[in-house]
Write a structure and sequence with these properties.
Rossmann fold; GMP Synthetase, Chain A, domain 3; nine-stranded mixed sheet
Length: about 500
């Protein structure tokens, strides 16, 4: 098994269909497969062998996708991490994975550690289509994917990075193929689809859920290096995008665009990743555009998809039911399975689950309870089999001996006028242990008084769940993939004294 054969098969069936749109250029599947073959041949000629690690550290581009599939065709392991990492973070990751080669850009390469800093890199390929063309000039476009075992590592995706100790998640060819099949099946994707991808390809969602699924079905990718509001809306219209993938923040921003429903007329399917979507945003999007915002549940360690909130019975607020061949169980702290309706830790097993982390047996041991992967998320399964995420186990606030799940508070805040984004976190408090604090983004003209917010929450939340402080900020910190960084909020405001808005 080699996941790169999905590209070869699609190039055989749909050679002239558009595989990639990158700026003003369009690339067919035939072109992409031949260029990836050239990369594979060039890598093999330079000494890269099956099982060797080759890293990619660059923004989204045609060159990134071509190089990635070239690495896989050669039987090597694609190691992907963010090009936004600092020099010390890059040194840490490179020292951990020790790739034979790194695909990056000249700008990012300036941040790479020197030879004496333990990075272990033998070669850096400056990114960009020109450099890629030079690399592949002598490669054979007929190069075919090297056969690998289904359990061999296909890709290593680094998580953490700017938010903690980075961990390299080992994903096998089987892990990715299992998820790719489920994504294509549940989203009803076909060769006629065109998906917009501005989320970073080093992240599991863009890499597996979007890119690999499109290569599998023969659909195309419209690539953008990052999110730009006008650029996104223009690309949807100009390219007739049918599948729109984004994160909650993007949907919130799009709702402020006049006439957004007309500008998205070609879109048939919307999906939100990275964080759970507030119910009120989903309802407003449906009312404005007529489109559901579909959600699934997954993580890097599960090659993306665990559950899916499907077409047949879309339940707002849920992340759906388990995908094919994937099992989900709610467990208590001792590992006992809990009955439906009971809250506990979400645990997963199936062919999509990683076998662990690179060079980190202790983290691997902690991540599993027997065959079950521990997600670190709290949730419950209702009587119909739908999974609901309550919160992150580590984000739970303990205030005055009471447990508060931030998401529950955030959902209520999102129903109030003027609130664009919010994050509820526990800040250190001498009296209560942790102080429930709401960080809120609003438009300046619509900024409510803390007293009015507190009054609006009374009767809807238990008194101990109502934030003791409301902090208004211009923006909330997020990862490159759009995930809200509550850890960064705590760190940024750790030394801050409570404002006059705190208290009852």
């Amino acid at each position: 098994m080699n996941i790169a054969t999905n590209l070869e098969r699609t190039a055989f069936y749909f050679p002239e269909r558009t595989a990639l749109v990158d700026g003003g250029s369009r690339v067919t599947f035939r072109q992409l497969d031949r260029d990836a073959g050239r990369v594979a041949a060039a890598l093999a000629a330079s000494g890269v062998r099956p099982g060797d690690r080759v890293a990619l550290c660059a923004p989204n581009s045609r060159a990134w996708v071509t190089f990635y599939f070239g690495v896989l065709k050669a039987g090597a392991v694609a190691v992907t991490f963010s090009h936004l990492l600092s020099r010390p973070e890059l040194a840490q990751v490179l020292s951990d994975c020790r790739p034979r080669a790194v695909f990056t850009t000249a700008e990012v390469a300036e941040r790479f550690p020197g030879e004496g800093e333990g990075a272990g890199c033998r070669k850096i390929v400056a990114g960009g289509q020109g450099a890629l063309t030079e690399l592949t000039a002598r490669g054979d476009p007929r190069f075919r994917a090297v056969e690998r075992d289904r359990d061999d590592t296909c890709a290593i995706l680094y998580t953490g990075g700017t938010t903690g100790q980075p961990r390299g998640v080992l994903l096998s060819h089987q892990n990715i193929q299992a998820s790719v099949f489920n994504v294509a099946h549940f989203e009803r994707s076909t060769e006629k689809d065109l998906a917009l991808c501005f989320l970073p390809l080093n992240h599991v969602f863009a890499q597996v859920h979007i890119m690999h699924s499109m290569m599998f079905v023969g659909g195309g990718l419209v690539l953008q290096p990052t999110f730009d509001l006008e650029g996104v809306v223009d690309a949807v219209r100009r390219c007739a995008v049918t599948q729109f993938y984004a994160v909650p923040t993007v949907y919130i921003r799009l709702l402020s665009v006049p006439g957004i429903e007309k500008r998205l007329q070609c879109v048939r399917y919307c999906f939100s990743a990275a964080a759970s979507m507030a119910v009120e945003v989903v309802r407003e999007w449906k009312a404005r555009t007529g489109l559901d915002i579909h959600e699934a549940y997954g993580m890097t360690e599960t090659a993306a998809m665990v559950t899916y909130n499907h077409y047949y019975r879309h339940v707002i607020g849920s992340v759906g039911t388990p995908a094919n061949l994937v099992e989900v169980q709610i467990q208590d702290g001792e590992g006992n399975a809990l009955a439906r309706g009971r809250e506990g830790e979400i645990c997963i097993r199936g062919p999509n689950v990683t076998r662990g982390y690179l060079n980190n047996p202790e983290e691997t041991r902690r991540a599993f309870r027997g065959a079950w992967l521990r997600s670190g998320d709290i949730g419950f399964i209702d009587e119909d089999g739908y999974l609901f995420i309550v919160d992150r186990l580590k984000d739970m606030i303990i205030t005055g001996g009471e447990n508060v799940y931030p998401r529950e508070v955030e959902e209520v805040l999102y129903t109030l006028d003027g609130i664009q984004e919010c994050a509820v976190v526990g800040m250190p408090d001498r009296e209560y242990g942790e102080r429930v604090t709401a960080f809120i983004v609003t438009s300046p003209a619509a900024r409510p008084a803390p007293g009015s917010l507190r009054s609006a929450l009374k009767g809807r939340l238990a008194p101990f769940k109502i934030p003791r402080e409301f902090v208004f900020v211009d923006e909330l910190p997020k990862s490159p993939a759009g995930k809200l960084l509550k850890r960064e909020i705590r760190k940024r405001y750790a030394g801050r004294r409570p404002s006059a808005s705190a208290g009852d």
